Amino acid sequence: MISGALITSVFSLVQAADESQPIATDLHETVVKVPMTEHGFFGDHERDIIATTYMPDGPGPFPLIVLSHGSPPDPLDRPKVGRYRELPQIRTFVELGFAVIVPIRRGYGATGGTDEEDAGSCRHPDYAAAGKQAAQDVLAAVAYAQTLPQVDRDHVVLVGQSAGGFASLAAASYAPKGLVAVVNFSGGRGGNPSKHPGMPCDPQQMANTIGQFASTTRVPVLWHYVQNDMYFAPEVVASWFAAFQAAGGKGQMIVEPPFGKNGHGMFAVATSIPIWLPHFEQFLAPLVPMKQVPVAGNDQLARAIHS
């Protein structure tokens, strides 16, 4: 068994590694502690999760993006999440005029501690319980960011990749005040590409859980996936989106052509920005005041990546 002192040491090293990287001064990068309430067997208690904020120039108020990270396939790699500094993507959001907060959920990276969103065994996953736990961290980040003077509390967008997309769907089901949209990049849980490429654990259970989330979600959701996702195959995702719509969910699904060897990680690749950015802007344009981001050679770069 790994000792608590060793775990603390590992997370300290991860935080130190993040802090050794140059702070993105052009993005006004700031590390913050977000208070949240944990509901445990022995009652409630307060704790902090680590988050990073990024801001455009000026006083604001700016619409807010809450960006949620995924989960490494190997649990031992959770400390490597660090502060999840996907700077090219974050810079794109800031250039659009968004304030961005990136919370590190419990059990990961700079926050550390127990992974409260563990879904359990592959045969009998409890995706609803996992989503509930992940949602609490996302909602805490929303509440914290809405206290910042630079943030427009009435225009909040949840954005997440993989397990972070799932966490965003779960958080949206709580209908937090100010939420206007969700963007779900390759969201889901239970993928096992080494054993069953494209087929996650109990996809029907995930469909049921997503239907449960959708029944209390009041904002549109953009579902953005890729054909060669080795975690969640297109036909699986289509069944999830059908369950989402059947339960009253509103939004649209986009499935991109194959990207690289495994399209699941497309969002994390900087060269994919010209591919997903037009969909992102078009979806949010009626909902959020944004600037336009000029990206030179979008069409040519997208064609080169797809070919």
UniProtKB/TrEMBL annotation:
Classification via InterPro entries: AB_hydrolase_1, AB_hydrolase_fold, FrsA_esterase
Entry superkingdom: Bacteria
Alphabetical list of Pfam families matching this protein: Abhydrolase_6 (PF12697)
UniProt keywords, alphabetically: Hydrolase
A Gene Ontology molecular function term of the record: carboxylic ester hydrolase activity
The keyword Ribosomal protein belongs to this UniProt entry's keyword annotation: no
The AB hydrolase-1 domain, residue ranges: 65-248
The keyword Transit peptide appears for this protein: no
Homology family: Belongs to the AB hydrolase superfamily. FUS2 hydrolase family.
Name listed for the protein in its UniProt record: AB hydrolase-1 domain-containing protein
Organism per entry: Paraburkholderia monticola
